[in-house]
Amino acid sequence: MTELIAVQGDITTLQVDAIVNAANTSLLGGGGVDGAIHRAAGPELFAACEKLNGCATGDAKATPGFRLPAKWVFHAVGPVWQGGGRGEDELLAGCYRRCLELARQHEVRSMAFPAISTGVYRFPPDRAARIAIETVRTHAERSGVETVHFVCFNRETLDIYVRLLRNFSPPVER
Ligand code: ADP
């Protein structure tokens, strides 16, 4: 069974096979976790992203991790929160599902997700975490991924994940 772990920290430092980026449709960089990943991966990442011709909301595309400890970066485009009536839940679930498909294609065993859409895109953190956990639990087994880290940038997000994961399996807090 795939292990789901909540951790607090900077996703760019994780030694996993793949980290997920919360990108925008251009894939040409932004602030938040996207900016941190591009800074840590180096300019080769930008060059690789330029060749991808953007990405639709709810979808994800893969590049190498370049100077990151992670071998791959899966660039997922989450929805901008507009009140919940514009298909935001399904689009966010799509990000997690597509990243697990990419994980299967790239034979990834360990991966890490940030809390996609909960920064500048303003998705309510609790609702986003429920979608993240439910989608990963539904699709992780088939993907062949053994360990999924949910990387929380702050204590509040970590508390949400720890609480939700406790309902399913024993969480590991680091
Ligand atoms: P979005 O545009 O999808 O909302 P953001 O990058 O603004 O993307 O925020 C997504 C989440 O990533 C937020 O919860 C934010 O706190 C978090 N975050 C920002 N920097 C990092 C980082 N270096 N590692 C992990 N999470 C991060």
- The CATH architecture: 3-Layer(aba) Sandwich
Main sheet strand line-up: 1-6-5-2-4-3
- Could you give me the name of the CATH homologous superfamily? Leucine Aminopeptidase, subunit E, domain 1
The major beta sheet can be summarized as: 6 strands, mixed
Sum up the overall morphology in one term: globular
Name of the CATH class: Alpha Beta
Give the rounded overall mean pLDDT. Answer: 96
- What is the rounded Rg? 14 Å
Question: Would you kindly provide a written description of the structure presented here, covering whatever features stand out?
Answer:
This protein is of the alpha/beta class and 174 residues long. It has one domain (3-173): Leucine Aminopeptidase, subunit E, domain 1 (3-Layer(aba) Sandwich), CATH 3.40.220. The protein has 5 helices and 6 strands, in the order ββααββαβαβα. It has helices spanning 32-41, 43-50, 88-105, 125-143, 155-166; strands at 3-8, 18-23, 60-64, 72-77, 110-113, 147-152. It is globular and about 40 Å long. The two termini are 21 Å apart. The structure holds adenosine-5'-diphosphate. Residues 10-12, 22, 32-34, 36, 78, 114-121, 151, 153, 157 line the site of adenosine-5'-diphosphate.
